[in-house]
Every structure is written in structure tokens, then in C-alpha cells.
Amino acid sequence: MSSELSFDFEVQQRDGRARLGTLQTPHGEVQTPLFMPVGTQGTVKGLSPAEIEEVGSQIILANTYHLMLRPGEQLVAQHGGLQGFSGYPGPFLTDSGGFQVMSLGHLRKISEEGVIFKSHLDGSMIELTPERSIQVQQALGADIIMAFDECPPYPAERDYIRSSLQRTARWLERCLAVKDKDDQALFAIVQGGVHPDLRDESLALTLPFDTPGYAIGGLAVGEPKEEMFPAVAYTAERLPEHKPRYLMGVGHPEDLVAGIALGVDMFDCVYPTRTGRFGYALTDRGRLNLNSSGARTRLEPIDPDCDCVACRTFTQAYIAHLLRAEEMLGPRLLSIHNLRYLHRLVERMREAIAVGTLYDWAMAWGQTYFGSKADGVVPEWFTEALETGRQTPTGTPHH
Amino acid sequence: MSSELSFDFEVQQRDGRARLGTLQTPHGEVQTPLFMPVGTQGTVKGLSPAEIEEVGSQIILANTYHLMLRPGEQLVAQHGGLQGFSGYPGPFLTDSGGFQVMSLGHLRKISEEGVIFKSHLDGSMIELTPERSIQVQQALGADIIMAFDECPPYPAERDYIRSSLQRTARWLERCLAVKDKDDQALFAIVQGGVHPDLRDESLALTLPFDTPGYAIGGLAVGEPKEEMFPAVAYTAERLPEHKPRYLMGVGHPEDLVAGIALGVDMFDCVYPTRTGRFGYALTDRGRLNLNSSGARTRLEPIDPDCDCVACRTFTQAYIAHLLRAEEMLGPRLLSIHNLRYLHRLVERMREAIAVGTLYDWAMAWGQTYFGSKADGVVPEWFTEALETGRQTPTGTPHH
Fold first, then answer.
1. Which CATH entry fits the domain spanning B8-269: 2.30.30.30, 3.20.20.105, 1.10.260.40, 3.40.50.2000?
2. In this model, does residue A133 exceed pLDDT 60?
3. Predicted TM-score (pTM) of this structure
4. Which strand (E) or helix (H) includes residue A276?
């Protein structure tokens, strides 16, 4: 069923469950594992297209919900799609809009047909269905588009999660039935919360569609990491070996390290740019608060080992000054640094996978990273994820 | 008395009163006429240092008042001055702080000694004197520093303007007495409002100090252009031929064209970046409002002849979308475009001066520019400035 042109994924190397891969898309080849910055409204907050390329981003996520409301998908289509609209020439991925409708609290009604929600812009009532989501995503023209799914909140009743994952599978079928463009790859989304048996049911309903990639959905919605990562491990090892695996909405440094160790290939999150706008810088020794009075007199860069323009050019004192003075260059520089930090983190993991030292690298990284926090303890969920990741998968992939 | 090292100005060509010059500063050579973007708090709003260079800026103005209050001149000095602090490696000019104190409305007392004002940040009472202004400007380390002057508002009584210009001359003497760094050039400021006889008096009191450059102060403070440009013409032709002339706080496109025709070499203004943040783009056909509903569907760039990144990469529709969505890339792109527009405008005038066609070029430019406005009429003050500018100066320079 994977008839998409210009779309191909190859796993080139493994280290335990972690993989190095190459993903071919119509707008270029990308190396996995990778982290995707979020360009909600067709722009990654704080960065120009040139800066997106400079920090090492390979593929941008854009939000269907926001763009269908404003400026409308037809205007984006008139620009030849997201690349022409945003000025970023590389690959894009669009979400389905479903998660935004539900998480932004504008949901009015959910039924077998789809969802009805109130626009956060003008209050109008709008319907989003699997068919409409695909239609919008085809107009937006991303390289990878996502199935329209339902993502239950945490906590939710087992029965609700179960009926929801079944509906998600029926919606997947409707998405695939309406999709009629060959230059976009549609990824299915596996649901099931933190329950292994429900993950099994979702996998059994989803994998027969043999989509060119799979997302692990329904996580990072409020559950503790002690529940989230076992669910990631359980699901990832049951996904096909030769398809990319995408853990949606995940992007704290420690989550990328654990997720990649468990065999995840793709991540996205607003975290690096959002925390940057709030004045925080990501480093191997934890998060640095540039709003602190201490930062105002530090004549050294955020991270002397970082190759981003913020660390190559500016002191912490200057960036702290920009934040206090409410100058937009401050949030820009921290957004750039934080994205570069996550990309470098993934690049270092790719290098470790290539030489088969991921477990040792990640354990050492965890010692430094968690060691910088108040209690200085590496959490069990993190060590367990790395231990699980170094083992050969025990589950049986459904295909 | 002009003992400054690494500082030199040469007029290379004339076309009527307009001049092409080269100004040598410790941080590099710049071509005049030129427009200086304003980096009030040590950053040009909306641009990174790399973007400042890319748009063709040659020298940045930074504000003594703002920087002495926050982060304090000592922190800037610890960075090796404004270049090390801001990451922009080229020349800087700092104002004296006097205009900011008076115009921002925080002035509490003005006396022969100096001014006492209330900090807009924490309400504390702070004294600024000629000596303190030079001390701060020396710590900031700009290539060009400005004498501490008093700039009367418009309108003001003749008697007040007269006693004020006399005090400004006494303050100039105190500034020069305390200045003890050879790698900064101190420019004096000629006052006198729109009154030729008071301009004469200020010139007579100021020029004997033979500073390496002169500013025309006290204009662009609310007077009509019909009064402002005759005062510019009168003052400029009485300034020494071999010293740069700086018209402070001026920067609308039509003002640059008229001012350069009248023999002004340097300008500064927050206008291009401020109007850009408000959603307006400068063009030869007037100011384009990207907040308008019409802009939302225009698939062409702001100006197809512009070589800035905004015009090379993005449609008006995309930039209009960014503004509506309150994405910071919108104000950034318009700030970049507007600065590039003013720099290109000056570059085109430099080319016209080089081949002796400035008058014709400026008349044609005015036809297009004012022709795009509601009444479509080229104002008399503009034509008169160009007519005056094409004539040989009639006044006698004091030196």
C-alpha cells in the first residue's frame, strides 16, 4: 500500500534497539534519529528559514489546526505549499489537527464522524473530520502527513481509551481512502495509553494498513515518565523494523536520550523554542536561567562547547541584558541555542550509535545532566530505558 | 585640537552641495552620506549583528542614556566596549544622553552644572553632566561620541534658545576638557533652532573648538519641514567643508533625499525599525501597510527591485500572516526591509552624486514618491531643498 513516490526509509545501523536511518522525502533526505522544531503558524518562533538550516534542523512540523484557521490552507496552496509560503525549502510534516482541537480546549463535540470545535480566533464552529484533515494536509503539501486520530487525556478510563483507539483505526481507514496525492507519506498513529494490552490492540488494528511510518501517540499528555517510557519501549519494539517511528510531542533532552535508546527515530516539541522565549538555555548540565541576577555579570557564553551563533558571539551577560530590556534578540538567541543544543544532542547520539557506544555515552550524559539538578540522582526510569534499549527486542513485531 | 588617532574624513566628490566622502574610524572605514540604524539598548531592534551587516549598515548609534541605566557602562566596558558587548564589530556612535533625558520626560532640573532626571527604570534620581556624559561614552567605547548639549523643544522662546545654545557651547568646552581617550572622535553640536541669527551665534561659539565633526542639532523636534530644511541648508553651508556633518534624529526617506542634497553626510533615526515593527514597509512609492486586508492575498514581494532577504524570500501575504499571527518574524522582516530600503536609497544617491546627476535623480524620485500619496503633490519644501542643493553654497564657512 506504500505507493508514495520519493519516499523511502532505510535503517543503516543498530546499537541495541537504537537505529541510524535515512529517510528520503520529496524535499530532501534526512538522517534519523532526528528532532523536528515546531513551526505552528508556518514559522519556527524566533528563527528565520536561514537560521533553521544553520542550527541543523532537517524537517519542520507545522500545525494543521492553526494554518487551516489562519491564513487558510488555500493561501498556502497558492504559494505552492508550506515551502513556498514559509521560505524553508526542506521537508515538512503536518499533524492532523486533532490533538490541537482537543488540547486547546476548544472541542465542542466528538463523534464517529469527527470533531466540532470553536475557532480560537473568531469563535465560529468548525468541523474537522478524517477526510477534511487529509484535504487540508494535502493543500498544505507537507512531505509527511499524519492520520486524524483521537488522543485521550491522562488519566482516562480504560474503556474510553479502548473505544477511542478503535475509532482511531476506523478514522485511519477513512484518511487513507481519501488521500489521493502520491508525493506525501501518511503516517498512522498507534494509541492505547500506557496499557500494553491496549497498545497490542491498537497495533493489531493499525499495522495491517502498512503505512510508510508510524507514530507512537497518546503519550506525553501528563503521565509520569515511569509510565511513559515503558509504553514507548513496548510499542516501539512491536513496530516494523523498516519503518520510521515517531514519538509525538516529546522533546526534553532526557526524553530524546531515552527515546532514541528505545528505538524511536523522530521527535517534535515546542519545548526548546518556548523555554528559550522564557529565558532558559538548555545545556548538558541542565537548564540555565538567563533571567537570574547571576547571569547579568557572566562574561562567558552559555556553553563554550556549543557552535551556535549565540554561544560563538555573545556573553550570558549580554543575553541577560536583552531579556531584561525586552529586546527580541534575546528570545531569538535562546531559541537558536536551544534548537542547536537538541540537534547536537541527537548528532552526538548518532555518532555513538555508529560506533556502538550509545549505552555508555547515554549513561555518562545522564550522570552529568541529572547530576546538575538539586538531588543529583539519575532517575530510575532513565536508567531502565537505557538498560531496555541495549537489549535485543523481545516483542514480536506484528509485521 | 583634532588629535584623534585613526580618525579621518575626506570629501571625494561634490555634486552641488552634496558630497561623497570617506570617514575613517578605529573600527573601519565608512562611506558617506550614510544612515545609521539606532541600537538604543545595544541591539538594533529586529536585527542580529549579521543581519545589520547584510543590510548594508556601516555604523550603529547606541544611546548613552539607556545603556548607563541598564546594564551600566561598566559592564559594557568589561566586554571591551560596544563591539564586544553587542557582537557588531563595526563602528559605533553614541549620543550624549542629553536629548533622551529631556525628550523622555524624566527631566527634573536643568542647570549650568547639568541635568537631574528620574530613571525610567527604578525612579532613582540621577545627575548627568558634560563630564559624566563623556565618562560614560568613553566607557562605552564608541568610535564617535557626541558633546553633551541642550536641545530646546519646538516651539521655544528665542531668548531660551539663545541662552541654551550659549550653555551648550560652555558644556562643549567642559566635554573636551574631560575627554582623555585618543581613539574616539568627539563631535560638537550646533544649536539655534530655526533662526538664522541664532544658528550664526551657535556656529561662532562652536567652530573654534575645531572638533572632527559637527552635528546639526535642535531640528526634527516638531517643527514643520518648511522651517526645518531652510535651517538645515543655512547651517550645513556654514560648516567646514572638510568635516562630516550629521543631522541628528532624521530618517524619513524624503528627509534623507533633501538632507543629502543640502550637504549632510550622516543621519540616524528609529523610524525604519519602529514603523517596521508596526507593520509598514518603506518603498519608492510610499509606505505599504502590511496590516491591511489587501496585503493578505498578495503573492508578490514588498518590492521586486529590493535585494533584502524579506523581498527575495517572502510574499506580502506571508508577512501579513506573520503580523496577524503576532509572530516575531514579521517585525523582523519589515525592520530588515526598511533598513535595507534606506541604505539602498542612500547608495543610489551616492551613485548619482558620483556621476553628477543628483538633482535629476532626486526630482524623479520625488515625483514617484510623493506621487503615490493622496494628493500626489511634490511639496515645495522638498523642491526648494533640491534647488538650493544644486547651487554653490553662498554662506561663508566660519573656517
1. 3.20.20.105
2. yes
3. 0.96
4. helix A271-277
